[in-house]
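User: Can you predict the 3D structure of RNA helicase? Sequence below.
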Amino acid sequence: MSSMNREKLNLRAYQEELVVEANEGKNVLICAPTGSGKTVVAAHIVRNHILKTTAKAKIVQAETGLSKICFIAPTKPLVEQQKIVLERYVGDICEVQDICGSASNSSSMCLNRQVIDIASVVVVTPQIIVNMLDAKPERGYEDVFEEFKLTRFSMIIFDEAHHANDQHPYNVIMQSYHSLSKPIDINRDQGQKLPQIIALTASLGIGNSSTKLAEAIKHAQLMCANLSVNTISRVRQNVTEMKNYTSEVSDEITLVDANDFHNLGFYKVLVKELKSLEEKVFSVPEAKRDVMLRNALKDKSNSSHLEQGYENWLCTCQKNVVPKYPSMSQESRSKLMQCFDHMLIFYHAIELLRLFGTAAALSYIVEENKSFLATKSSKTTSHIQATMSHLRQQPESVSSMFKALTTILSKQFSEKNDSRVLIFALTRFQCKCLASLLAEKTSKASADDSGSNSSNQRKKVTDFDQGKTKILCVTSVAEEGLDISACNLVVQYNSITNEIAHVQRRGMSRAKKAKSVILTFDSRVKTRAELNQLREKLMADALEEIDRKPALYMSQIPEIAKNLRQAWLLKNDLISQTSVTLDYTSLQQKFAVVCRSCGAFLCYSDHIVLNNGSQHVCVDPDYLNQITLSVPSDRLTQDRGVMMNPASFRHYCAKRSPTGVCGVDLGSFVSHKTGVNLPILTCKSIVFLKVSLDHNSKKVDDTAQYTRYSFKLWRDVKKIFEPKHLSTEDLLAMKTASASAFRKVVQDISMLKIV
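Assistant: Sure. Here are the predicted structure tokens for RNA helicase:
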């Protein structure tokens, strides 16, 4: 603790208005615009809480205890940012620490508990708290296990509190909070030592509400019930002052006529390839003779290559139809998977062609085919090589969308040369494309937020603040409260989400005469943007209506909360009953785990165990003979220590066939505290085949019709079996094989010359 760098907290009048109920000890939802200084408001509440609690503890001398505050932010960059702000304002009176990530191993959780014990204020990501609440004692240590409870804190602050809904970790934490009081202690009765809840948001949203005011009000009430608050703190008296510090910027929606790409030779090559691949899909023997398979493969809903329905069809076939269909040879299955993989690449390339032009589309195709070209035979890759060569020969073209963007930027910088422009794109790859094109086509520096670590991202934001970078291309990570300086222009580049993000993004246009532009070639994006504007107004109307009749609407929240609690208890009971059933049925079923792409046998389901409650690892030593280990090229650095960290390694399917090596990415590695490196399996890369209990050959019959299961997430795998927990026997079984596998690959890396 030090007062040297401490800044004095002088709240503005509207901020003083926001803290009144919180300083009275109530559970409060603070709703204020982006840029209004909600974190400063939170720092004032924290300081007031600490000073009051400390003074009270001195008076009663023991039983009350000292304050301990948990400030929860949804992302690591936000945690780091909010810690800095809190240290600035309360670091002279207390210790502020941060914890990031989602590690659930016992040593990490023990360390996290120590940090919480030491610090008066701890800033964390929500999964840290969820994992600590869910922690179970290790076998043999039940008597010394200390259950973690939220009563350890005297105050919990949720940043970006609109996330506290459905199965978000925020809501999981609040379900634990609600379980501590019976009935739900919405008024924080002094007899219940529950932490005070402070929720911060710029926008509550309206959930699934349509255009009805009553539904929007119900959503606001639901959010209050989830967060156990019965007071909404908004600026009502000092609105004019608040408007002086925040911006009221309306969106300009620009629909670009971008149909000129139809005449490009580049586009025609891609469409020809898609049609050719579609023909290959229906040429497999099973598709010719099996009506059900043929119909499943044909179900495109008459979508063209430019529509979302086409992508949906490709994804459904790739993730469900092909992996799960029982009556299919592995040769046909592999051929279909390869076809759909390339069709998805070409579909996304067309999207990039429309967004940026030929250079971005070609770059994407080359990048996505690197692994395919490196692992497959020349005969297998000859066609894609020829296609890429043909694409390179096409005349280069820049999209109408990008031309429209450069026109907007040119006008902005001609009006104000020192402007700051924030451009939102959907993906990191799109950010990189924008940054590269803008650096090439304009005289203004640009950067993207896709850095490999948070310090890299912070540097880019700092450069933007200081004017070293005038244009910053970002993904949705920046809309979650990151402290990006006042922007003169925010552009949403064919990127639209919901009304909450709509408010957050526009709120970053904080400079005077700032503008916000939604630029799109898609009429559906334009329609969604217009709908977001309506939903934003409906949200504001709902809060105004609650303000008019607070006694009516807020008095209903305890009953809503009570019903929620009953629903949660019922759900937990059902989960417990299902778990008991699974414990029995898991013993009655066995599954062969195979590669999703080539069908190679990898292990049996009873060799998949849980490490630290969340990581699904394979503990069959023979598995290491079915894979290759390597460090991805984007992780190769001069720092050998970083490269040789087991967490840097990926493992890939090593099955060879006449077409080459399979090469599917099967997952990463984790280093157990005993030093044994264990392979973590990626759920979407594998398929489960139901086999007999006496099936021990460690191979599958290509002609057999197994019942096949494919899942995207491990939590869904529980529908068929429940993995056991990692045991000492498992570690001993993997120790020698794992050490041998890593020794060889580390020797190979040691010989690499990193340029």
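The chain has a mean pLDDT of 84. The first strand starts at residue 28 and ends at 31.
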